[in-house]
Amino acid sequence: MKKCPYCHSPVEDNWFYCKSCEKPLISNLQDVLHRSLKDSYDKPDVPYIELEAEEEFYDNSIIEDKEIDRMIQEVDDKLSSKEELGEPIPGALLIEKSSLYYKKRDFTNAMKNLELALKNFKEENELLNIAICHNEIGLIQEDIGFFDQAIYHFNRSLEILKDLDETEKVNKILNNLGNVYFVIKDLEHSYEYYQEAIKLSKQENLLYEEIKSSSNLIEVLYLLKDYERIKRILTRNIKFFKEHDDYYGIIQSDIKYGKLYYLIGEDYDLAYEHLNNAIELISRVKEKISIYLKSKLEWECYFYLGKLDMLWNNSTKAETFLLKSLEAVRIFEIGDNINEGEILENLAELYMTKGEIERAIEYYNLSSEIFHKFGDDYKKAELKFKVGKIFLEFIENNVEAINHFDEALNIYEHKGYIKEAAIVLHKMGDIYLNRGLKDLALRNFDNARTHYLELNDEYNVNLLEEKIKSITNNKNNYLL
Length: 480
Fold this sequence. Notes:
This protein is mainly α.
């Protein structure tokens, strides 16, 4: 029988954690894929309360950096020993070392060791282990924001696992692809991969995998406003999680219920109740999970609690919750995180209601920068337009207003958002008209009218034609 390398107690091959000292074990490479894939409703699996050894999870064990450094040194000693004896370097050790660096958030060294492991496995043509490495690399690329690379590696892993007929692992990769496409707002592909995962789970009678994939799909359904389907999924899921004492699933379902009731505006009190239930459950497990996983669970709770208090004009509580949400995102984020853009935007709106205009502009601009980094140009343009309106209506700085409107207009026209471009052009025409710059006003009104004609918006076409006619008549009278 094998022994735990930490406390030397007997361990079984299929254990992920030693039952005596609760230290993580890597018994074989196939287990690594099962352990580390983001398969649990878009987050890692989390053992709740008991932290039983049979449970599996990635990046949620509480190990101090000094302990991780000691474990890395042990792996290095094994690698040195192999090198001195002229023996091949086992890819398993390199993956183990990578996972330890991952826990330290040292992604450079984690990636370096994964790439070495991948090279070793390719030389030996160990297909399953090659798939494992591609997936692990994809997860890190996603974490650091290289989404195209993440997609590439997930697809390479998927191809191999399909050829090997590794159904459960294929399901996990499909969810990983759904996750990364969701982050970059490609809802069509995200929906497609989640649906494929659900279909595969049903075919293979993998109920737990089906539940987790459907939980992931909910995030897409929010944006599609398919609230009835979300309700059906959550009703089934919460029953399953309670029957299986899966408190992580219960926490996620409470968060999703809270978000649902907020978005449909049916019962804000019920939304508040579910979000607070989630916060309470997170508090109960906070000593059992890492600070990173805790913050990933908390950020959305605080975000929607803040939005609810904004609705109820509880500005002080709203600010507290939104700042807590921002703090949580910054704990688990690597570089910028698109969720931070949403929080900053809501803080800007809150500061507007409090009359803190300069602070609102600052937060809108910070939010805009983050959305730009994630390629969400529509959102960037929307925020530029909002800031332009603030300069126009509150600060009465027409020059700054025009500058911001111009930035928004360039994005809208370049991306083909005709209606939005028409609104900006109309607004700019009004500014120029009020300043007596009739030629510029006419040019903007005419361009806006052209867009409204494309949209068959008769009301706005007629309105603009009246403005153009009025300016033209006044100019003619002046010439006479």
